[in-house]
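Continuing the batch. This is chain 6 of the set; chains 1 through 5 are on the previous pages. Same settings as before, nothing changed between runs. Recording input and output for traceability.
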Amino acid sequence: MPIVKVPGIVLPPTIKNKSPLIVAGIAVTVLAVAGILYALLSGQNSETNETFGVASADPDSNQSVKPDEGSQSKMGSSPETENEPVSAIKPTYGDHIRPIFEKHKCYDCHDSERGKVKGDLDLAEDYSRSTVLDKKKPDLSRLVLRLKDKKDPMPPNGPMLSTQEINIIKNWMRTGAAK
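Output for chain 6:
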């Protein structure tokens, strides 16, 4: 059986049986394509790490976030959600987001009911909150970009939100930003 010349593959003239080289070249090509496909497809699963409760590292910081003790992190403390995995819980503003904002004293500067509204964000008004959200691209929302800005940190007096807290906020947006 004659060997067909393949463009781009140059065989040394001293090798008499050239078919093993052709098979090896094809195998290397197949492995390279498989590696590229694997890298592309595994990159699509990076959003899995952004869901709350999954240990992940923030690319903008040197700290890694670890879930709370136990096999699964819990988001709510109500009896009906206590035994559910975090990924099964749809976060709501009142039950999950508001406590984060209260913990970091966001309402001290962003609450019209207290007489302060800085940065055009009034957390007491649904409409004002909706102007800083992006349900399709939470990472690019004004709220998340502002919360992650280390040059002008929010809150200005106190620790910034943890990566896990920001992931909870992003998941809340991604799932529809329910009240």
